[in-house]
TrEMBL record:
Coiled coil: none annotated. Keywords: Membrane, Transmembrane, Transmembrane helix. This is Bile acid:sodium symporter family protein. The chain crosses the membrane at residues 39-55, 67-88, 100-120, 132-154, 205-224, 230-254, 282-302. It comes from the Bacteria. It comes from Lysobacter yananisis. InterPro entries: Na+/solute_symporter_sf, Put_Na-Bile_cotransptr. The lineage of its organism: Bacteria, Pseudomonadati, Pseudomonadota, Gammaproteobacteria, Lysobacterales.
Amino acid sequence: MSWLKRLRVDTFTLALLATVALAWKFPLQGAPAQWMDDFTDLAIAALFFLHGARLSREAILAGMLHWRLHLVIFASTFILFPLLGLALKPLSGHLLTPELYLGLLFLCTLPSTVQSSIAFTSMAGGNVPAAVCSASASSLLGVLLTPLLLSALAGAHGGMADPTEAIGKIMLQLLVPFVAGHLLRRWIGGWVERQRAVLRYTDQGTVLLVVYTAFSVSMNSGLWQSTPLLALYVVIAVCALLLAVVMAATTFAARKLGFSREDEIAIVFCGSKKSLATGVPMAKILFATGALGAIVLPVMIFHQIQLIVCAQLAQRYARKAAGRAELEQAAD
């Protein structure tokens, strides 16, 4: 298994691939598909309830005052990314199927991740309280901004639900459980923190459920028979290019605006990432269509690329910090 370590393919990625293969071989149909759909809705609500219970109010207050940093991150997440997605429009209908291009647009309008943004910021020695505040706020803003931005960019294409109706559904299924969990943090927060390692699998399991149901619908609709292999390669290349451009832009902006090294790290990691855990449930609400599998595919691909790249970058930041500390000790 050493080749897997060299490629840095984690177990969750393998689980995602296995889930797609399962949906391809054994897609759900009829009543079982409806039961699974209802169960997935409950699992999504439980997931965001636990996210709310994990969120520390102290961490939010500690990072809220750093408004310049948050503005840069939000500009990257909700302005730069959507503009880049719009710039890819000439690829639609040529190198990309309309469904895959819609998936890329959806990816570009998603909020930032929470757990991995914070984890990589911490690993690299960045401003963790600011990362906690910014990533959490990004997820909450995404409830409103993602449907509105996607509606503005894509219009009525791809079977997207009405944005105002979608916002109501997202708030009911994601935001209400999130707020309820946070309000109950006083009583259940300690237990949730102690179970963090176990509850990580709740996040992953919910994503796998949604992916399985989405790809089952896509298989039943015959979508993948009409999707050329070249288009899938183009999606991978475009996802890598998007990440590279945004990471370069956020690094340049952080240095040009005079942020500290710790703030730069938070800006780069929070401003360049997109949330799979939030994106897949949102897609289920926004797109009641057989193309759902193709729409979430760019999000899945980008998720793995960002983990690989950010892990390497975090280690690089950490090594540089360790080198500077050694030099300072030697100078003393």
